[in-house]
Amino acid sequence: MTLPTTAPAVSTTLPTPGWRLPAGPAFALLAALITSYLAASAAPSPLYALYREAWGFSALVLTAVFAVYALALLGGLLVFGSLSDHLGRRPVLLASLGLELASLALFWRAEGVVWLVAARLLQGLATGIATATLSAALLDLQRERGALVNSVAPMIGMAVGALGASALVQFAAHPAHHVFEVLGGLFVLQSLAAWFLPETTPPRPGAWRSLQPRLAVPAPARATLRQLLPMNTAQWALGGFYLSLGPTLARQVSGLEAPLVGGALIATLVLSGAAGIMVMRQRPAGRVLRESAVLLMAGVAVTLWGVQAHAVVPLFAGSAIAGVGFGAGFNASVRSLVPLAAAAQRGALMASFFVLSYLAFSLPALAAGLAAGRFGLEAAALGYGGVLMALCAWAAWRLGHAAR
């Protein structure tokens, strides 16, 4: 079936406010929004233990709920990632904010696993649409600062979401409600402010055709993408494990029931990832990739020592080391790929890259949930970490061989 090449008429009729935010405040709002979306994405992680106690589901079900979010986010990126190029940034962003508020309402009302799945599905879709739209809008306003915010703000957002939700779980009377009330209030205020955002790209035809997912790797980028695949898989699989099973593992290893322990473990990984980006973003990408593979492998090894010994210090120290490798390696991967595609091919190349990334983010976590149900969480973590270390060793060897 051939899709029409023109956008529907309704797409151009969104009322435009008479007053709009100046460029500086608009950029700050966009940065705050991308931080808030990722904070909301991490906020359910510290609550999973409460949900499991209340509804009695397994570690496999927990990781399945997490995987639904990752796959829905991937779908949002693939299907709607280019829509704001045709309809404009502002209307697509406002639509994603509506979906995000609906997902928070489902979380607030949740009475079982089906509610969680529905909420995570909507949240993943909203975050996927918003990620593509906000990333483009930030680059429209300030290319250099926008690229930095796109790399660092999501990690800061995940840390804030995990720590904030953990604090509410530990100290609030009804955390499963309060977490989403706080987030809902924040998103309502940001939605009102977003109404006054300036439009950074004019509407143009082709909206319906843009909904067709396009995956393609240009010939000059194929060898590099294959080279990056082991490292990229390891780092995203590590992130998926932390955001799904990490808080439960932290409580088991530490022997502490304080929810802040689990939130702090996630925050350690992602904040050290942001630090890795900041420190290494100007260094040659090939060198950073090799160093990141070693850092990730070493960090996982130290973390597994903490798991084996039930020792909190190596658990967190290893997470910090691995996080630096995660953040710096991801940034270097993007810097390695982007110059290898012409402007017209870049969107399809990055879509392909993110498909591989989010599959690594979600599917291994499902396998970890299955293993945890069969062998126990600590044994599953040790086996999972061993596989990640092997991938990192392979990546370091391939990257080192290619550099000769």
From TrEMBL:
Keyword set, alphabetical order: Cell membrane, Membrane, Transmembrane, Transmembrane helix, Transport
> What Pfam families has UniProt attached to this entry?
MFS_1 (PF07690)
PROSITE patterns tied to this protein: MFS
The residues that cross the membrane are 21-43, 55-80, 114-139, 151-173, 260-280, 292-309, 315-338, 350-373, 379-397
Keyword Transmembrane attached: yes
Annotated ranges, domain Major facilitator superfamily (MFS) profile: 24-404
Where mainly found?
Answer: membrane
Q: Which domain of life is it from?
A: Bacteria
Q: Classify the protein's membrane topology as the record does.
A: Multi-pass membrane protein
Subcellular location field: Cell membrane
> What's the protein called, per UniProt?
MFS transporter
Q: What's the source species for this entry?
A: Pelomonas nitida
